[in-house]
TrEMBL record:
Domain FAD/NAD(P)-binding: 2-292
Family to which this protein belongs: Belongs to the class-II pyridine nucleotide-disulfide oxidoreductase family.
Catalytic function, reaction form: [thioredoxin]-dithiol + NADP(+) = [thioredoxin]-disulfide + NADPH + H(+)
UniProt remark on cofactor binding: Binds 1 FAD per subunit.
Keyword Oxidoreductase appears in the UniProt entry: yes
Name of the protein this chain belongs to: Thioredoxin reductase
Native source species: Anaerococcus tetradius
EC number: 1.8.1.9
GO annotations of cellular component type: cytoplasm
Length: 308
């Protein structure tokens, strides 16, 4: 029996584990893939207080993981089901069943897909959702980045290290990214912009070779490809989908995001939700860490007898 089980090992979950473990609570973090969450796939982290210049997302994730491992147990497993009612909660995984008095949900979000023809066909054959992971594979090739937020523009800038050129395709005429990031993009001579446009299809033979793009204002469709018909890289950054399917019907949600109060408490006693999993306005690494700290501190108080 654990005091706390944290489902998900991203920045929010690892921070919660660090604080819970330091409070001498028997804590288990269950992570299905790579601890660190979305930050692991980020090229460089410039907006986290105290991060060193040129700090990589993977490097920062590994450091946070090392800190958490000093104070709590981490198990890699897929969560199949949860039982949240009652004083004792149960988490069923492919590595066994675990019980705890408190559950902290930190399952994060996954990359949203375009849904365009060819996207699935050319996954790992030109189509990618991680610049840090796959950028080097496209050295000397033309790269296309789909999206207009901070992630899309930051990764586009990073990809100029490898690509012959980088073209950003965005469905609006203005970017949603912060001004500093937009300025950096506009001043980079290797970056081209295709605005007011959406990807209709990803084409190729064995690898991605071209994109069919439609202008949303004029309806004009054009093909984007390399001048010499070489394979291309297509990096997609069009948002995220909350990973909360296993909690459906067990906890209050809004469009898949878990509803909490400012204390990270859900409508189910003894269950907290943190990070990108919960319904909130700002989703950044620093806010995820804050969520994790809040949940762990208040979980400790709850276990000491505080009312829900």
């Amino acid at each position: 029996m654990y005091d706390i089980i944290i489902i998900g090992g991203g920045p929010a979950g690892l921070t919660a584990g660090l604080y819970a473990g330091r409070s001498k609570l028997k804590t288990l973090i269950i992570e299905k893939a790579v601890a660190g969450g979305q930050i692991s796939g980020t090229a460089f982290v410039e907006n986290y207080p105290g991060s060193i210049p040129e700090a990589t997302g993977m490097g920062l994730a590994e450091r946070v993981l090392e800190q958490a491992e000093e104070f709590c147990e981490i198990k890699y497993a897929n969560v199949k089901a949860v039982e949240l009612e009652g004083k004792v909660k149960k988490v069923v995984t492919d590595e066994g069943e675990f019980e705890a008095k408190v559950i902290i949900i930190s399952t994060g979000a996954s990359h949203r897909k375009l849904g365009a023809p060819g996207e699935e066909e050319f996954a790992n054959k030109g189509v990618s959702y991680c610049a840090t992971c796959d950028g080097p594979f496209f050295t000397g090739l033309d790269i296309f980045v789909v999206g207009g937020g901070d992630s899309a523009l930051e990764e586009a800038n990073y990809l100029t290290k490898f690509g012959k050129s980088v073209t950003i395709i965005h469905r609006r005429d203005e970017f949603r990214a912060s001004g500093v990031v937009v300025d950096k993009i506009k001043s980079n001579p290797k970056i081209k912009l295709v605005l007011d446009s959406v990807v209709k299809e990803i084409k190729g033979n064995k690898e991605a070779e071209a994109l069919l793009v439609e202008n949303v204002k004029t309806g004009e469709i054009k093909e984007l490809k390399s001048d010499d018909n070489s394979p291309i890289g297509v990096f997609i950054f069009v948002g995220y989908i909350p990973q909360t399917d296993i909690f459906e019907g067990k906890i209050e949600m809004n469009h898949g995001y878990i509803l909490t109060d400012e204390d990270m408490k859900t409508n189910v006693e003894g269950v907290f939700a943190i990070g990108d999993t919960r319904d909130k306005k700002v989703r950044q690494m620093v806010t995820a860490a804050g969520d994790g700290c809040t949940a762990a501190v208040l979980a400790n108080r709850y276990l000491e007898g505080a009312k829900w």
